[in-house]
Structures are given as structure tokens and as C-alpha cells.
Design brief:
single chain, 454 residues, alpha+beta, six-stranded antiparallel sheet, 10 helices, HSP20-like_chaperone, SAP domain-containing protein
């Protein structure tokens, strides 16, 4: 199609105006796309069709008006036309932000590099008119071979030279693009090699890679023996924290601290026996978290802590105020999927009992399991034969709870008072309701029987 206008200047001005208007329209479309990103999933197709329709109508209307209207009709339209269209601003793709402050830049005689935590961008300058078919690239886990094809192959990067670290081959690629002009005014070409560094994580739990604290992410260059070819190298050096200077900024003089005002239970992993006036005495092994009951309740509420009860035989249970005795779960330090039977087969009876628990259980004779069980059974039978005991019980108090006369298990014949007395003699926990006490005693008797069998 040829424009029927004899005015070449008008044709040029209309072309500039059309280009500028389309640029502004596309810029608004890009801005709208960025602002409407949260709604893109449900309106992407409708928005794209609308943009295409508006663009097509605008172009057709402008071309039609150019062919049919006289020159004078465009005076107002061209009044504010710029002489040169502005450059199109294309929103860049999201860039991965490194989680650690590692990296630096450097330059050598034939290449430059920019290093980040997990990647190194290597840039090389090649002659003008170089295309992708003129490049020969080969990557391994220890080096990169890059050659420029022609009458004779020109080695840009020698594959026999080993890099400073391991390379992830799957994440390493190269590209060629236009570079800056040289001194003669010719536009040069640049080859960009994106090297992904290979590090072995210590854990990938939850899809998150965790690395050891001693992992050195900085290569500091491409090759270990590059002192002769590197002209500049700029890396940020981590500064050692000056504790005195940092404390002085906070208004604290660490040389003049009144230790009598410091809560020492926050720092040590040892408990100290104190007398009535609070004077520290002999050290006692253990751990003092020094938290209040309200803080513990909050931790349990949000699932950050669990209340675990350890029995005298080493077995542990998770305590939940909202669950019954039948729903009580065994606790295992090896994980929730490890059952008690598996621990027993592996020879793990229970977690070690600390010194405090041992001292409480010092007077308990658990060597003869059968004798202990017989004593408990005999005491239960004596209580069952004593009819006056049931008559003296009161249903208004938990300590005087009535027993079931039809119960077959001797433990069910025990009252709360007797249950607590037996548990106290065995060195076990005596808190809880009657059902909890009975279950605790059954578990203790069962553990004694298992020890006697082994």
C-alpha cells in the first residue's frame, strides 16, 4: 500500500508519531500487566485479547485517517510530536536474589567475570560478525573449553585448565550478543558463559538446601593459577566483629559489668543447689531453661514444645490435656515412626534416666520384677477383701473415688490413694486422674515383666 500524499515531511512525521503512540500504548500495557500480576491467572486470556483488539483498531484507524484526510487535518495531531521516539522500556525478568553476601568482580587479559553465591558470569570479546555457528563449546565438571572456529581454531578458554571449583554441567550455558564498539567504531560481539557452581548440601529437607557453615562459596576467580593474567580482582572481605566496639554503641561497657545483677541460669547448662537464702552451693548436673509456665503453654499451643513424661523404666509418653488415656502416645527420640517394638528389638529400652530421677528411685528395688508384681497383686487382693474400704470412699473427692466391684484386673480395685502410694514407692509420677494413675501402674508392671523375661 502506498500513501497518497505528496508531502514527504508529513509522511515522516506521521511515521514518527505512529511509532511513538504505539510505544506509549505498549508501555501502558506492560505497566498494566505488572500491576495486575495477582489477577493474571484468572484474567490473562481476556486481557490479552483486549490488548490485541485495541492495538489493531488503533493501527487501522490511524492508517485510514492518513490516506483520507488532508494535510491541514493533521496540524493539531503533529503539534506535540517528538522528533525522535523514546526507547522502549521492557520490564526485566525476575532475578534470583542471593541469600548470602558473597561475590565479586574481576578482569583478565582475555575475559572478565562477575561472581555471585552460586553462579559466575564469564564474558569474552570476539570479533565482529561472529555468529553462534562459529563457536565450539564443551563443558565438564572441572573445566570449560571454548573455541572460535575459522581457518584455524582459536582457543578462548582451555578445557585442560581446571577451574577453582566444581561446575554443575546441567546449569552451565553460553550465549552470544552484541557488545560495545571498539576504538575503530565497529560493534563487537560478546560471549557470555554462565557457570553454575556445584556445592553438595548437607541437607535438602523440605526442598531447601542447607550447606555447612564451613562452605566457601567464593571462588575468587576462574583458575587457581591466574595471577599472571588477572589485572583486577575486587571482592568484599568479611570484617571480624569487634565485640567491645559493638557493645559500646549499645551503651554497654563490658569491662564494668556488675555480675551480681546477671541471671547466671541463662548461660550455664548446670543446676546449682541453693539453700533457703539463695546462696549457690554444689553444682548439680542438668539443664535449666528458666521459662515460666505461661511461656511453656504458649510453646505447646503453637506446636513448638511437647510435654513428655518419663517413667522409672525409661519409657516416655506424650502428655496431652485434651486426650484420654487410650489416646496417649509413646514418645521416641528417634522419631514418631519408630515404634516401641522396634526399639525393643534393637535393644533400646528407653532413654537414659538422669541423675535426679536415679536419686529418687534409689530406694526402689527393681531387681526382682516378679516379686514386685506379686506385692502389687497381693496388696490389691487385700483391698478387695476389705469391704470396709469401699464403704468409706466418697464420690465427691478424686482421692476417695469408688472402685469397680466387678473389675477383673487387681489394679482396677485400687483407689486413687492406694494408686498414688504404690506409684510413689516405685518412684513414678503421682499426678493425674485415676485412669492415668492406673495406666501408669500397668505400664510399670508390664515393663517389670518384660525385664524379668529377658
Amino acid at each position: 500500500m502506498k500513501l497518497c500524499s505528496s508531502d514527504a515531511a508529513l509522511h515522516q512525521a506521521l511515521t514518527v508519531k505512529l511509532h511513538t503512540s504505539l510505544h506509549q500504548l505498549f508501555q501502558r500495557m506492560a505497566d498494566h500487566a505488572i500491576e495486575a500480576e495477582p489477577k493474571r491467572r484468572r484474567a490473562s486470556a481476556r486481557s490479552l485479547n483486549m490488548h490485541r483488539t485495541v492495538t489493531s483498531i488503533f493501527i487501522l484507524a490511524l492508517l485510514s485517517a492518513t490516506l483520507t484526510h488532508p494535510v491541514s487535518a493533521w496540524s493539531n495531531f503533529l503539534a506535540n510530536s517528538p522528533t525522535k521516539p523514546s526507547s522502549l522500556q521492557v520490564p526485566s525478568c525476575p532475578v534470583r536474589i542471593n541469600t548470602c553476601m558473597y561475590g565479586g568482580v574481576g578482569a583478565a587479559t582475555s575475559y572478565t567475570w562477575k561472581e555471585e553465591q552460586f553462579e559466575i558470569e564469564l564474558t569474552l570479546t570476539v570479533p565482529p560478525n561472529t555468529t553462534a555457528k562459529d563457536i565450539k563449546f564443551k563443558c565438564s565438571s572441572t573445566g570449560i573449553d571454548l573455541r572460535l572456529l575459522g581457518d584455524s581454531e582459536t582457543i578462548l578458554l582451555d578445557g585442560n585448565r581446571k577451574t577453582r571449583g566444581k561446575i554443575c554441567v546441567d546449569g552451565t550455558f553460553w550465549s552470544i550478543s552484541d557488545g560495545p564498539r571498539n576504538k575503530s567504531g565497529e560493534k563487537q560481539r560478546e560471549i557470555n558463559v554462565m557457570i553454575e557452581k556445584h556445592f553438595v548440601p548437607t541437607s535438602t529437607s523440605g526442598g531447601v538446601s542447607t550447606y555447612d557453615t564451613t562452605t566457601d562459596f567464593d571462588w575468587g576467580g576462574i583458575y587457581p593459577d591466574d595471577e599472571a593474567e588477572v589485572t583486577s580482582r575486587e571482592y568484599e572481605v568479611a570484617h571480624e566483629l569487634n565485640v567491645r566496639e559493638y557493645a559500646a554503641k549499645l551503651g554497654v561497657d563490658i569491662d564494668n559489668i556488675d555480675m551480681s545483677k546477671v541471671d547466671k541460669t541463662m548461660f550455664g547448662a548446670e543446676l546449682r543447689e541453693t539453700d533457703a537464702v539463695g546462696v549457690e552451693g554444689k553444682k548439680k548436673p542438668g539443664t535449666n531453661l528458666n521459662i515460666t509456665q505461661a511461656t511453656l503453654d504458649q510453646l505447646v499451643k503453637f506446636g513448638l514444645a511437647k510435654e513428655v513424661v518419663r517413667q522409672g523404666d525409661g519409657t516416655e509418653y506424650e502428655m496431652d490435656a485434651y486426650s484420654s488415656d487410650l489416646e496417649r502416645k509413646h514418645f521416641s527420640v528417634l522419631g514418631k515412626d519408630v515404634s516401641v517394638d522396634e526399639l525393643r528389638v534393637a535393644g533400646v529400652v528407653g532413654t537414659p534416666i538422669d541423675e535426679q530421677s536415679v536419686s529418687l528411685n534409689a530406694g526402689v528395688d527393681e531387681q526382682n520384677a516378679a516379686a514386685s508384681y506379686s506385692a502389687v497383686k497381693k496388696e490389691a487382693e487385700l483391698i478387695r477383701d476389705d469391704d470396709s474400704v469401699d464403704g468409706q470412699e466418697s464420690s465427691a473427692s478424686e482421692d476417695d473415688d469408688l472402685v469397680d466391684p466387678n473389675a477383673k484386673d487387681p489394679i482396677d480395685k485400687l483407689t486413687v490413694q492406694k494408686l498414688r502410694e504404690v506409684l510413689r514407692n516405685a518412684g513414678l509420677k503421682v499426678s493425674g486422674n485415676k485412669s492415668e494413675l492406673k495406666q501408669r501402674l500397668r505400664d510399670h508392671v508390664q515393663s517389670l515383666l518384660e525385664e524379668s523375661e529377658t
